[in-house]
Amino acid sequence: MSKSSKESASVGKGGELHQRANTVLTTNHGMPLSDNQNSLRAGERGPTLLEDFVLREKIFHFDHERIPERIVHARGSGAHGYFEVTKAIPGLTKAALFSKKGNQCPVFVRFSTVAGSKGSKDTPRDVRGFAVKFYTEEGNWYLVGNNMPVFFIQDAIKFPDLIHAVKPEADRGFPQAASAHDTFWDFISLMPEAMHMVMWAMSDVALPRSLRMIEGFGVHTFRLVNAEGKSTFVKFHWRPKLGAQATCWDEAVKISGADPDYHRRDLWEAIAKGDFPEWSFGIQTFDEAWAAKQPYDVLDPTKLIPEEDIPVEVIGRMVLDRNPDNVFAETEQAAFLPTNIIPGVEFSNDPLLQGRLFSYLDTQKSRLGTTNFHQLPINAPICPMANFQRDGMMQTAIPKGRANYEPNSLNEAGEYGGPRAQPDRGFRTFADNNERNDPTEKLRIRAESFADHFTQARMFYRSQTVPEQAHIAAALVFELSKVQLVHVRTRTLAQLRNVDEDLAQRVADGLAMPLSKAETPAFSPQDMKPSDKLSLMKKFVPTLEGRKVGILFDEGSDLAEINSLKSAIEKAGATTMLIAPKVGGIKVKGGTLAAEGQLAGTPSVLLDAVALMLTKDAATKLCGESAAVDFVSDAFVHLKAIGHDEGAQPLLEKAGVVPDEGITSLDSSFIKAAARRFPAREPSVRMLP
Ligand code: HDE
After folding, report:
1. SS3 388
2. Residue 71 CA, ligand 1 centroid: distance in Å
3. Model-level pTM?
4. Count of Cβ atoms closer than 10 Å to residue 491 Cβ
5. Under a CB-based contact definition with an 8 Å cutoff, are residues 282 and 216 in contact?
6. Are 237 and 182 spatial neighbours (Cβ–Cβ below 8 Å)?
7. CA-to-CA distance for 350 and 332, rounded, in angstroms?
8. Ligand 1: which of 109, 110, 144 to mutate, most ligand atoms within 8 Å of CB?
9. What are 293-308's pLDDT values in tens digits?
10. Which domains does the chain have, with CATH numbers?
11. Using omega within 30 degrees of 0 as the cis cutoff, is the peptide bond preceding 530 cis?
């Protein structure tokens, strides 16, 4: 779909704007230019002339380069790739895509943060958007999901309030890309239905190590409909091949200073070097009868379906193998709409999803300025499309003939009468006659079955490992410490008591506040079985694949040893980065070695593990350089493996490193340790509540 960047625009046959190899610089109208350095002046030192249409066109276009950023999910990173069906499911859906194992279609994915504006950082504590365009032979299917399986609210009517509350506060315009402020917690503490999602947002899942290491969820219950018209409910899941992994909070904070583009750079670089990120695609399926028996409502987007109850069945895989050619044309102009479905995939009555169904079309018109946004290359279907919709701003299609209405009988006159609906193959809405829906009344009402706000929040918290529970408590203490309205803190503590008494007590202690009086919930929380699938640490995949290991060297380090460690790390699937105090070339034993990163500009927060290959003299000298001391002490407190030779000892001591199983020599034990983190170290480096 994309064109080579060497080509430039010119007007071609039939009036279509297309690309051809062109080395001549022209105006937008194709007129060749003689000078792109000087504007047209009245005399050598005189004023610029109004007549300078070349200058005017260039500046006019520049002045309008920005379009409104997305109200949510403004900061995003995109990538192209393909989806492949690994298990056909014709019994469940008539979608042609899923009819045969091996079927493939191109995809475009946009990952995003939610709260921050376009220029914010990549690593705030936040939900991540995971939006996929499947360009199928039956039209574009968009699965616009997140990296957490539930959401804050049950009804679309609360979305503007939620987003207003989390965005920078209305009077002061800060904080940017942060939920740690009064208005967010004010709102959230008044919305008990948010508590389950709050647990997720305060967990390590909100601090991804890489976009290549996040899970994805369709969140809502959807339907699959087969050729016989039978409907099956479905939840969609993406699982990263590299395993889901998070950073420490302190690490995420420091990364945002060291590299605000950490995630987009990581995604771009991995794809550019052929290390293609991959996800498996899975479904949980169930029917009305099963749904009716659950203690929660499957239409309630604040609930998940435990995998212990319905396992995820893998039916596909997605590989991202191409970076965008142009961020604006593709990632920025990509328009996602949950309404873009294909025959065989349908909505449920989830009231949050129902609200999304009309919201996204409005957004695209307001952001892209025209009803013809679907014609932009990134949004256009790759299958044939035809209808009688015409005209509108920035119409780029040139429909031929007289037929712009239907029915018509132009065919009978030998003319092209245009396309016709296909009763057999076309999309039909599933006739949902479930008696639980009771469509006989119009009501502004919340179903009774949506009333339990705490059971799953409790299940999530109790499914975490001890260190993960401590992280949730620490995140809540951090966020609430930024809240200045004391009654909001008190109210949040009351909500937390319904999630878990121990958690509430830890947070109260961490704030040095008394535990609030418990509030009686509308529905008393139940104790569900904890689920191992909800813990990142329990699911952790110990692999070096896709990770980055830093090798710190300096004058006198041994080139042969560096090279041999480098190749052992690379053999295990990681990339390496050579780091030294100066980049140009340092005299080492056996030659001169240039570094890829300068020590002060490459803190260890940007790496998964570090190796210190230093002579004793170099290490002693580096004890006087805070960037070197921080490099080591941060790796230690961020629970990373540190491999080192004898010479590095003075620097380890200065950095306060205490030996444990993550502090290794530079042999195979380092390669093994580098694939892990060491949470057991945490209590000695951080006073968690
Ligand atoms: Fe969105 N959401 N959303 N959302 N959403 C947008 O659409 C909205 C919700 C999600 O990379 C907007 O084109 C409403 C849930 C993603 O371009 C907007 C409601 C989930 C993206 C919008 C929700 C999402 C968006 C902003 C409540 C997870 C980024 C720009 C009814 C399942 C897509 C745009 C991209 C984007 C509205 C709730 C995911 C304003 C009204 C729940 C991943 O239309």
Report:
1. coil
2. 9
3. 0.94
4. 18
5. no
6. no
7. 28
8. 144
9. 999 999 999 999 999 9
10. 76-375 (2.40.180.10), 454-534 (1.20.1370.20), 548-684 (3.40.50.880)
11. no
